[in-house]
Known about the structure:
Layout: H1 2-24, E1 27-32, E2 35-39, E3 50-54, E4 60-70, E5 73-81, E6 88-93, E7 111-130, E8 133-153, E9 158-174, H2 180-183, E10 187-204, E11 210-228, E12 238-251, E13 256-268, E14 273-286
Antiparallel strand pairs: 1-2, 2-5, 3-4, 3-6, 4-5, 7-8, 7-14, 8-9, 9-10, 10-11, 11-12, 12-13, 13-14
Amino acid sequence: MKNHLVIFLSTFFLCFTFLNFSAEAQTIMKVRGKKVMIDLGGESWGRGDKLFGVDNNGKKRVLMQVLQVKNGKAVAAVMKGRAANGMSLILARKGSVTGGNVPHGLKASTAWGFTGSIMMNTMSISNYRQNSVDYSFKMNGTNFGGGLFYDYPLSRDWQVRANGTLEMFNVSKKYSTAICNNSTSANCNASFLQSGLYGTFNYIFTPSPYRMWAGAGGGVFIYLSKSSTVLNTSKFFFNSMLMMAGGLDYYISRNTFIPVSLEYQIIPDKEASVSSMVIRAGWGKSF
């Protein structure tokens, strides 16, 4: 009888311990893309906390950040690694999220938006011949423009950003003598209303909400109107362009961000060396 009592109490204690542990376990319940549903198992974790997902061998396989907590459950975003159902969780670091529903850990994503631009343009003219004399000079100008963009993810860290723009390219220089416009004007200039179609392959260094990237690419400029006292504009219909760019996509809400970028563009033309430094800022929406 005494032995039976010992066995009963031992079995009861083991069952109670197992059930209590199971009830209090913190696990991943469901995985959907880069978002996971978590059972907090009684833990008081909150928004902004970072968690490790651990496999059956005790290895940390994924880093996540809690976005929302409700009724003992939580939604988290995958920052690094791959989540799987049933993984146990341990706290990596307490933290906070500024602003409601701001995604953390998001890298490449499909998005679209619009931007405004400030362009600092330069055109260098060499061997400009007038009255049997060769001249070399540089024309400068600051102009404005606008455009649309579309982001397409290639992987977690790489994406393509396609741009369509409408911009004014206007440069000038006041020369000391009348050498321009067939030696009738000292005002040397070139003016183009151009539509740009180009794209960049971007590598994303940091996840949202401060998504920093850098890339390179190219495209074409189509000239809608043109005039110049230096160049023969009848030759200009479109031109190819090469560029480097870097920027920051700052998320202000779950799907909305402010894109800011700096671009360096060059046009490899035989008649004139053309370059532009472009600052863009605008509004974007990911989906």
